[in-house]
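User: I'm curious whether this sequence folds into something compact or stays loose and floppy. Could you predict its structure so I can see for myself?
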Amino acid sequence: MTGRLRVVTFNVLALGSASGKRRHAVARGVMRGLRADVVALQEVTRGPEFDQAADLLGPGWSIVDLPGWSAAHVGECLAWRGRVERVFTLDRSVAGGRARAAAVAVEVASPLGALLVVHHKGTYELPLEHVREQQAVATARFVEDLVAGRPGSPVVLLGDFNAGPESASLRFLCGRQSLAGMSVRYEDAWEAVHGDAPGHTFSPRNPLVRAGEMPLERGRRIDHVLVRSGPHGPLLDVADCRLVFDEPVGGVWPSDHFGVLADLRRPERPPGTWA
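Assistant: Here's the prediction. I'll summarize afterward.
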């Protein structure tokens, strides 16, 4: 896609759950058709016997893992179609050592120029928004340190944040409140295109949600693509944003999450300039 960057975030649901091999075959077919440039995967299996991420994506990808993989080789990774210039990792304790803030950032030469892509993961437990707040602040500081001295460098932040747009952690990232004496501002790609439409990515209309560990789930938009803003607005424009992996194929749902796809482009005129 000349002049555009296509990014996808998708929680695949662990391979050992809910007929994982059948789901994986469906997800692989959908993923290959998306023609993404960047993919963030959660609950993906990358073990010595089977690399689910590599099989989903196909050849030609650089795959970088986040810290914190399980004994069953399930975790999160960030993939770029091509060569990664540099990799940066965040891994530190939060909440008094009871949880960790983990993220990975890759510096790449993209169709839109030099770009930093960051995969963030928030803890899933519903009552632990205070932990997600601390994780969001840690990731935001991590990014600000990386772009210090490069105020015009675009940053894409994506992943399964396990938090909806009304939560403190997302309000913080989207510039609607400060946390821990810090404030940042990222553009929510879904909101940029669809306004306040629900866009639920974890929804009871998916039978895998109803059959899973949260049978009373009402529906939330917890998977996000965000674009960092400068003083006058986001440094990349959102050309499109939509849900993917949100329908069954041959009766098989790919995951209990829907994915989010966003097409990004350079703005016609850089924010901070007059026409």
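Summary: Helices lie at 20-34, 52-57, 129-147, 168-173, 189-194, 207-211. The CA atoms of residues 115 and 153 lie 7 Å apart.
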